[in-house]
Design brief:
seven-stranded parallel β-sheet; 8 helices; Rossmann fold; alpha/beta
């Protein structure tokens, strides 16, 4: 789907790679001006070059800053300026024994995966309300519904993102601003590749993916990892003008992993 997003400006956090990068490229392809965010200027420059190679007409700006800190969010806001679309995508995950997760890891997961979205939505939500239009999206996860035993702190943070999307949507009721959560399922990203590599496995081997789905996500209906582009298509729709009646909603692009008909 190719919505017309001309005249709109978007900020996508954590958009130098993975789902965030695919979302930034999709929004740019739809005509939005996109602020690309990451912690390192070199990574942002490389991401912008990749998007421009694919979409020569893309309008892109750099918005450097660590979204996991208050000072970093302030820097991102200063660089991005006013936006019509906010995609709270930045996030981290790790496999760790439930009883071996120290306080610092819980805090890190919360600051990056949850407070980044709180701080940015707290800033941009009232500005969107004042002009009568806006789109806010929290990238949650199927792990926020079906908590993975191997990373419960990640699941907790993604459950919190679901609560934030609903709560902020209610706080912006009747304003023309929508707030939603998109729930990807297992998706092949650079981070997922690195996770498998740390276990001595490679997703270039078809058996690795097959075994992971069979053992770790057996409820998957598509029986494979999603691509970042598949997730980006759903995020772009939720960000579009056409999605004006979709708000306060968890929108699943999980490949059927979640055992629910809703």
């Amino acid at each position: 789907m190719m919505s017309d997003m001309s005249g709109l400006r978007a900020l996508v956090t954590g958009s130098t790679k993975g789902i965030g990068h695919a979302v930034a490229q999709k929004l740019a392809a739809c005509g939005a001006e996109v602020a690309v965010n990451g912690r390192k200027a070199a990574d942002i420059a490389a991401a912008i070059d990749r998007i421009r190679d694919a979409i020569p007409s893309a309008r892109l700006v750099a918005a450097p800053g660590d979204a996991g800190t208050a000072d970093g969010v302030a820097a991102i806001i200063a660089a991005a300026g006013e936006v019509d679309i906010l995609v709270n995508n930045v996030g981290v995950f790790e496999i760790k024994d439930a009883f071996a997760i120290p306080d610092d890891d819980w805090r890190r997961m919360f600051e990056i995966n949850v407070m980044s979205g709180v701080r940015l939505t707290r800033h941009y939500g009232p500005l969107m309300r004042a002009k009568g239009f806006g789109r806010v999206v929290f990238i949650s996860s199927e792990s926020g519904v079906q908590i993975p035993t191997e990373m419960i702190h990640y699941g907790f943070s993604k459950s919190a993102d679901l609560a934030l999307a609903r709560g902020f949507a209610q706080a912006l009721a009747g304003t023309g601003v929508t707030v939603n959560a998109v729930l990807p399922g297992p998706t092949r990203t650079e981070g997922v590749d690195a996770m498998f590599a740390s276990m001595g496995q490679s997703l270039d081997d078809p058996e690795t993916e097959k075994n992971f789905i069979a053992n770790a996500r057996p409820t998957s209906i598509i029986r494979r990892l999603a691509s970042v582009q598949e997730v980006a298509e759903v995020v772009a729709f939720v960000c579009s003008r056409e999605a004006s009646a979709v708000t306060g909603t968890p929108v699943r692009v999980d490949g059927g992993v979640v055992l629910s008909i809703t």
